[in-house]
Amino acid sequence: MSEQESTCGPGTGELTLDGSVPVVEITGLWTKYGRTVVHQDLNLEIEQGEIMSIVGGSGTGKTTLVRQMLGLERPARGCVRVFGEDISAIDSDQLQQLRNHWGMLFQQGALYSALTVFENIAQPMRELQVLPEDLIHDAVLLKMNMVGMGPDQANKMPSDLSGGMVKRVALARALALEPKLLFLDEPTAGLDPDLSEAFVTLIKSLHRELGLTVVMVTHDLDTLFALSTRIAVLAEKHVIALGPLRDVLKVDHPFIKEFFLGDRGRRALEALDEKTPTEH
Ligand SMILES: Nc1ncnc2c1ncn2[C@@H]1O[C@H](COP(=O)(O)OP(=O)(O)OP(=O)(O)O)[C@@H](O)[C@H]1O
What we know:
Blueprint: E1 5-6, E2 24-33, E3 36-46, E4 51-56, H1 62-69, E5 77-82, E6 85-86, H2 92-99, E7 102-105, H3 117-128, H4 133-146, H5 163-174, E8 181-185, H6 193-210, E9 213-217, H7 221-227, E10 230-235, E11 238-243, H8 245-249, H9 254-261, H10 263-275
Parallel strand pairs: 1-5, 4-9, 4-10, 7-8, 8-9
Antiparallel strand pairs: 2-3, 2-5, 5-6, 10-11
Helix pairs in contact: 3-4, 3-5, 4-5, 6-7, 7-10, 9-10
Keywords: ATP-binding, Cell membrane, Membrane, Nucleotide-binding, Transport
GO molecular function: ATP binding
Organism: Duganella levis
C-alpha cells in the first residue's frame, strides 16, 4: 500500500448536486500521523439537507475529518467523496468548482480585519472574477439581510463589531456563493448564551430556507442539540454511534454517557425538552 491511497474507484467527473448521491460519503478511511492511527476504517455518509454534527473526545480526529472533506488533507487510505467526486483525485479546476458549492464558518480567522463588512462578504464573489459590481453590491446586501444586518452596517470594520455580529458577517460570507454545503466549526464558541441562541436560530432558519446540508463540529451541547438532525460520535478511531440524538443517547459507551448524560448534558437536554418536547 502506498502512503496515501484513495480507494474510491472512478467517478463521473461531474459534481452531483441534486441529492441523488450522498453529499459526503466516507468509506474505509484511515488517517495516520507517523505511527499514530487517528481513524481506522471509518465510514460516514451525509445526505442532502442534514445537519450532521461530529462529536468526540479531544484528539479523536473531528477537525481532521472535516479537513479531509475539504480536500485540505488526504487520508492514508480510503475514500472521501463530496458531491459524488473523489476529493483526492479531482484536479484544481474541479476543486475550485467544489469550493464554490460549499461555505465554511471557522472558529478563528473569520474575517479580514482590514476589510469592511461589505468587502468581507463580497470577497468570495470577487474571486470568481465574473460577477459585475452592481450584482455583487445587491448580493452582499441580500446576504447581510439574510443574517439580520441592515445596509447601515456595510462600511463598519470588523473591530467595530460585537462577537455575535462578527459571526453573522462570517456566516454571510460563507453563504456568499449560495453554497449547498456549509461547514461550521464551533459556530457558537465565544458567544454568550443569548447571542449563541440567536445564532442557532439564525442557522436553523437559513438551513430550512436554503435547503442547506450542514456539517458541524461543536462541543457546545445546546448548539448540538438544537441543530443536529443526526450526530456522529467518534471514538476508538471510528464512528461508534450515528443517528438522531435520541438514538445516540441509547448507545452504551463511556464517552456517550460522560458527554451527553453528565451534568451539562442533562441540563441541555432539559432545556431542549422545554423548548421542543416532541422534536427529538
Ligand atoms: N498535521 C498533523 N500532524 C501530526 N498529527 C496531527 C496532525 N493533525 C492532527 N494530528 C493529530 O491527530 C489527532 C486528531 O486531531 P484533531 O485535531 O483532528 O482532533 P479533534 O477531535 O478535532 O480534537 P479537538 O476536539 O481537541 O479539537 C490528534 O492526536 C492530533 O495531535
